Amino acid sequence: MKYLDDNRLGATEVVKKTKISPERLRYWDRAGVAKPKCIQCGTRKFRRYSQNDIQKIIFIKTLVDVEGYSLGGAIKKLKQYNQTNEQGAFVTKKEGLCDKRHESTGFGTA
Q: Per the domain annotation, does 110 fall within a domain?
């Protein structure tokens, strides 16, 4: 399906890349985690995910599976991240999440 749009991936490729189930991906789409572009080919519709969509999915997956957030809480955290991203307040790390404000002030560190 890559021939439809070079910059976007199909649902099957996203499932492989993010290691989440197709059912979970569809559920998260309905919840608003990602907003894939739908492409009509005849009577079939294909969901095409941007790199930004994939980053959001990975971010939410980390919050839900590693940090223990509910999906609703993870979506709120994603919105908070998007609002503060321009200021450089939150960064993602391979092993989890880190708030640079707490690191720089010493607040919230052991």
A: no
Q: How many helices (H) and strands (E) does the chain have?
A: 5, 5
Left (φ > 0), alpha (ψ -120 to 50) or beta: where does 38 sit? beta
pLDDT (0 to 100) of residue 26: 95
69-103 pLDDT, tens digit per residue, is: 999 999 999 888 877 765 554 444 433 454 443 34
**Reported pTM:** 0.69
Question: Is 70 part of any domain?
Answer: yes
Domain of residue 52: give its range.
2-105
Crossing angle of helices 51-61 and 71-84, rounded to 10°: 130
Question: Using CA atoms, how far apart are residues 24 and 13, in angstroms rounded to an integer?
Answer: 14
